[in-house]
Design a protein that fits this description.
2 domains; Preprotein translocase, YajC subunit; single chain; Preprotein_translocase_YajC; about 90 residues; membrane; about 45% helix; rod-shaped
């Protein structure tokens, strides 16, 4: 029969293992989020008229003009939408 000290030390060891696993998970998530922020920052700063883009809701179009935080995207001939610069999720071609 295990003594109370053995049970306590096993509990502490288990707690330490779980804490280390959570710390590793947090570090991995932080690195992933940092990379994603950098990628989107580069995308949003490199927007130029003529670039084909995908808006976050899945619409594809060509940028006609960029003004501060607003972009105008031509979805089809004669159909232009005004969108936030930050709603662009991918640049298809420049």
């Amino acid at each position: 029969m295990p003594t109370w000290r053995e049970i306590l030390s096993a509990g502490i060891a288990l707690f330490i293992i779980i804490a280390i696993m959570l710390l590793i998970l947090q570090i991995v998530n932080l690195v992933k989020i940092t990379k994603q922020k950098k990628k989107f920052s580069e995308i949003h700063l490199s927007l130029k008229p003529g670039a084909e883009v995908m808006i976050s809701n899945g619409l594809y179009g060509k940028i006609t003009s960029v003004k501060d935080d607003i972009v105008f995207v031509e979805l089809a001939k004669g159909i232009e939408v005004k969108a936030s610069r930050y709603s662009i999720s991918r640049i298809i071609s420049n």
